[in-house]
Design goal:
alpha+beta; Rieske Iron-sulfur Protein; 22% helix
Length: 384
């Protein structure tokens, strides 16, 4: 009997007033972490990076996602391609550090070379010294392994299993919900990018993010104006969940300056904002004048890196006078996210309490978290 068979998910997949949360093993077991990697994170559209990190033709950035070596490349037609970062010859890693590809992607081992679209171009001496061809080497069949990818809101999503629905179908409900924000966005610059390396399971970061129940005690500063009673639940089973507020307060400089708004927004966003966990691993925040992304990188069963990026409706170059405000905005959000660290790390420690049974949900306050648990359980059950 495997460890997998010991995790009973029936108690998760029921109404919130009767349900328990995911069992402890889903937070502390290396075997379950491996199962979730394949059934949850590889099987669906997971975020792995950002378009702003490969802005120009030939820019390449290697990333490792749950042990999978990937290579993000900006093509000559401005599109982004994602490949497995291994040569088709002997499996050598092609690129170790972010770089500018000039001419071709060259394997450092035997110099097999690939184009920006992954096609195999040259195979030096493959037929012996002075012979760069061999009848058994069919270049058209030996391009780099292409990883299915899609870019939305500058986030690079991949479906490693290659059998998820089309991204526009997978994300249709969220795209429709935020269709007003389907317009250009621009990264805020160096200060608008930071990482948090946290000793917790990736799911606990999502569970904490998508509920407002904890605000009065964990974010007292934020709660002074965006109170618990000003928030509402967001639930789209099978896709995303989170929270919204009806009292978003814009940052103002001493002279009253605010960030420019996104264009043509409805009145809902005058004082409204929403914070959504888009399954499986992308956290999003959207406001009238800026947005942010938290991409969760599950490194180990009890370690997660949060990659945080902040975006605006106009470029930093066009709004250079707002640089100090952008810096202040980044510091503000980092302070908010820092306040959550002891919580998600504390829950991780608590999952080693062998008597903990997944916990009891509040039928009134924990709806978004329960929606996420059900989605994870559904994915695991389908994989089994």
């Amino acid at each position: 009997m495997t460890e997998f068979s010991l995790t009973n998910l029936k108690s998760v997949l029921t109404s919130i007033d009767q349900a328990k949360g995911l069992p402890n093993e889903h937070y502390i077991s290396d075997q379950i972490f491996e199962e979730e990697k394949r059934s949850v994170l590889f099987k669906n559209w997971s975020g792995i990076g950002f378009g702003k990190d490969v802005p120009n033709t030939g820019d390449a950035k290697p990333v490792t996602f749950l042990g999978m070596p990937l290579l993000i490349v900006r093509d000559s037609d401005r599109s982004i391609n994602v490949f497995q970062n291994t040569c088709r010859h002997r499996g050598m890693i092609l690129i170790e550090e972010p770089t500018k590809i000039r001419g071709a992607i060259r394997c450092p081992y035997h110099s097999w070379c690939y184009g920006l679209k992954g096609e195999l171009r040259t195979t030096p001496f493959v037929g012996g010294p002075g012979y760069n061809e061999h009848e058994s080497i069919k270049k058209e069949n030996l391009g780099l392994f292409v990883v299915r990818s899609y870019v939305w809101q500058d986030i690079i999503f991949v479906n490693i299993s290659a059998d998820a629905p089309e991204f526009t179908d997978y994300a249709a409900d969220l795209i429709k919900r935020w269709q007003e924000f389907d317009q250009p966005i621009y990264h805020g610059g160096e200060s608008s990018s930071f990482k948090l390396d946290i000793k917790t399971n990736w799911k606990l970061a999502i569970e904490n993010y998508c509920e407002s129940y904890h605000l009065p005690w964990i974010h007292p500063g934020l709660n002074t104006y965006s109170r618990l009673e000003d928030h509402y639940h967001i639930e789209q089973p099978g896709s995303f969940s989170g929270q919204g507020t009806e009292v978003y307060r814009q940052m103002r400089a001493e002279n009253g300056t605010v960030f420019p708004d996104f264009a043509n927004l409805s009145g809902k966003w005058d004082e409204g904002a929403e914070y959504i966990a888009f399954y499986p691993n992308v956290l999003l925040g959207i406001h009238r004048d800026h947005s942010f992304v938290i991409l969760l990188e599950p490194v180990e069963v009890a370690r997660t890196i949060e990659h945080v990026e902040i975006y605006y409706p106009q470029t930093p170059t066009d709004t250079s006078e707002l640089e100090a405000m952008r810096d202040a905005n980044a510091r503000l959000w980092k302070s908010v996210f820092d306040e959550d660290i002891f919580v998600v790390e504390g829950m991780q420690k608590g999952r080693h309490g062998m008597l903990f049974d997944g916990g009891k949900f509040s039928p009134v306050m924990d709806n978004a978290t329960h929606t996420f648990h059900c989605w994870v359980a559904d994915q695991i059950e389908a994989g089994r």
